[in-house]
Specification:
CATH class: Mainly Beta
Number of strands: 15
Strand order of the largest sheet: 10-9-13-14-6-15
Number of helices: 0
Shape: globular
Number of domains: 1
CATH superfamily: abc- transporter (atp binding component) like domain
Strand content: over 45%
CATH architecture: Distorted Sandwich
Helix content: under 10%
CATH topology: Coagulation Factor XIII, Chain A, domain 1
Radius of gyration: 16 Å
Order of helices and strands: EEEEEEEEEEEEEEE
């Protein structure tokens, strides 16, 4: 599927979005190691907050500096509960830019379907669903 075009400039593409505990980058080789990828979060009670996590993004086809907005969304209104904004710089459209964004204390008001939504420029580039479930048996913390 070809990327959507705006004003004859191809839009950046998100090749990968992985939610995990952490990402470590080898400074010598620039290779990334993704630790404990997951797509569900379990909590013993609601409302809850999830501890630290990382979102690994692999982006390409960008032209110059492109604003991004990584939103954590949930609920029937599909509204952002929190997020991170910034700018990603593409040296040229063939470059693949890897980004690691860390977040902590994600609000989890109730059990259900949540998502990370990546907006590049003015369009949604990728969404990644996260299922949030009630873990029976008591306790206080949210985990994966």
């Amino acid at each position: 599927m070809a990327p959507a075009k705006t004003k004859d400039v191809p839009q950046p593409e998100c090749l990968a979005m992985i939610v995990c505990d952490d990402v470590i980058e080898d400074k010598r080789t620039n290779k990334k190691t993704i630790y404990n990828a997951f797509n569900q979060i379990w909590s013993r009670k609601f409302p809850a907050r999830h501890g630290k996590l990382a979102v690994f993004l692999s982006l390409t086809n960008g032209h110059g500096e492109v604003p991004f907005d990584l939103q954590f969304i949930g609920g029937a209104a599909d509204k952002p509960l929190c997020g991170l904004k910034g700018t990603v710089k593409f040296p040229d459209p063939l470059t693949v830019v890897d980004m690691v964004l860390t977040m902590a204390g994600l609000p989890l008001p109730k059990e259900g379907v949540y998502a990370f939504r990546l907006v590049l420029g003015d369009r949604i580039a990728r969404e990644r669903r996260i299922l949030v479930n009630l873990l029976k048996g008591g306790g206080d913390d949210a985990g994966d």
